[in-house]
Specification:
Blueprint (H helix, E strand, L loop, with lengths): L32 E3 L1 H7 L4 E5 L9 H15 L3 E5 L3 H10 L5 E7 L5 H9 L3 E5 L3 H14 L3 E2 L5 H7 L1 H9 L7 E5 L4 H15 L8 E7 L4 H7 L26 H11 L2 E5 L1 H13 L6 H18 L13 E5 L7 H8 L4 E7 L1 E8 L15 H8 L2
Parallel strand pairs: 2-10, 3-4, 3-6, 4-5, 7-8, 7-10, 8-9
Antiparallel strand pairs: 1-2, 11-12
Helix pairs in contact: 1-12, 2-3, 2-6, 3-4, 6-8, 8-10, 11-12
The structure holds ligand F0G.
Ligand F0G binds next to helix 3, helix 8 and helix 12.
């Protein structure tokens, strides 16, 4: 159990047991810290550290919380667990449930999740229900169903999920020898991750583990930015986005369930929330790639967002305080291979905000510029031609 980068910190998690036989672990956590010099250059900061949560067993940050939530369901003797998902929660839940006799039931928006994620839920044996509607519709249905039946709800409204995700902060600070960074940047979708970071920071401060509080900076895609819209309108109620839209399908969410807790995180950490365009996300992802660090589009919002807020600060926006010397950690949430279509289309100069396929592409609009494209080269299988091409 101590091999797990989550259970290792069990004194700070909601279990105080003699017997840990209910624990379901796949060796999650312990995700690496990686220096990203090219991305730092692109953003315009001295140094950027990446914590890559995509290096988890199911390829996303969800495993930190899922090991705890599935263990709790296992302890309770649940027979079936359910979640609505843009793909990663469902992949993670399916994997952990496969280790038990809990039947995983996942609700995903039809045609709106990346293939890598769909392939995982199928492989792990989940009952996979493709709903006509978006994530927000799926979330509403699964919440009702879990209230009316004994389906155990596994979305991040489940407190055990958030408790587990606190371990991202523990894992991070442990790796940094408790030298707390100035800023932690994270993508915002259903807002569970940022909520759990806030809770972890509050508890660590109260327990005396840390003095300094890093500023949590949440970045959303412009077309799916309910938290941002809520904050800029100073609304006390969520300003939802109907038919939220982004190519970063992981965060295509208009009614985030944990928005109040995310606001609490921002208040507690003196944080910031901003939005980035599809073009900014695509370019930031390609730059991370040049550092040898792949990620899915949602994760690249972090680098795009940092670049944007530095530019805003330097253009005189006095509300933003950030400087180029800060010690910044960007949290990458998902593995590059979750959504290879996006990456290939970018490099083939064929990425569109909207694209309709009927075997072949029939309608497209909103071309994304492939600023940092690396196109494949087609050439005859002829050694001399290859030598000439490569100047050998
Ligand atoms: N990045 C990735 C790769 C995600 O899969 C998600 C959320 C987020 C960021 C946003 O995190 O919801 O905690 O604010 N994916 C969920 C899912 C919604 O169903 O897989 P959040």
């Amino acid at each position: 159990m101590d091999i797990s980068g989550v259970w290792r910190y069990r004194e700070l998690l909601p279990f105080d047991e003699e017997d840990y036989s209910h624990v379901v672990t796949l060796g999650e956590g312990n995700t690496p810290l990686i220096d990203a010099p090219k991305a730092a250059d692109y953003v315009g900061i001295k140094k950027l550290t990446i914590k890559h949560l995509g290096w988890n067993p199911s390829g996303s940050f969800k495993d930190y919380g899922m090991t705890i939530a599935v263990s709790q369901a296992h302890k309770l003797g649940s027979r079936a667990a359910a979640c609505a998902s843009t793909g990663n929660t469902s992949a993670s839940m399916a994997a952990y449930c496969a280790r038990t006799d809990i039947k995983p039931v996942v609700f995903i928006p039809e045609g709106q999740i990346a293939y890598g994620k769909l392939s995982q839920t199928l492989d792990y044996g989940a009952i996979t229900i493709q709903l006509k509607g978006d994530f927000d519709v799926a979330m509403e249905i699964v919440q009702d169903l879990s209230a009316e039946t004994d389906l155990y709800l596994m979305n991040s409204i489940n407190p055990f999920r958030l408790e587990g995700q606190k371990a991202v902060m523990l894992d991070l600070f442990d790796q940094l020898n408790w030298a707390v960074p100035d800023r932690i940047v994270v993508p915002g979708g259903n807002l569970g991750n940022s909520s759990s970071y806030g809770k972890a920071l509050m508890e660590l401060k109260e327990l005396g583990f840390i003095e300094k509080i890093p500023r949590v900076t949440i970045i959303q895609a412009a077309g799916a930015s309910p938290l941002y819209r809520t904050l800029v309108s100073s609304s006390r109620e969520l300003v939802p986005v109907e038919h939220a839209w982004t190519l970063a399908s992981a965060i295509k969410i208009g009614h985030p369930i944990s928005w109040k807790k995310a606001v609490r995180t921002l208040n507690f950490t003196d944080g910031w929330c901003d939005v980035v365009t599809e073009q900014e996300i695509a370019d930031a992802k390609a730059i991370l790639g040049r550092d040898g660090i792949g990620c899915e589009p949602a994760s690249a919002t972090t680098v795009a967002g940092l670049k944007k807020i530095l530019e805003l600060a330097e253009a005189g926006n006095s509300e933003i305080t950030i400087d180029r010397e800060e010690n910044i950690v960007a949290i990458l949430t998902g593995h590059q291979l979750k959504d290879p279509d996006y990456t290939v289309n970018y490099h083939l100069d064929n990425l569109y905000e909207e694209a309709l396929y009927d075997t072949v592409l029939v309608k497209k609009s909103g071309k994304i510029n492939s600023t940092f494209a690396n196109r494949p080269i087609k050439i005859d299988a002829d050694k001399d031609k290859i030598k000439a091409l490569l100047d050998l």
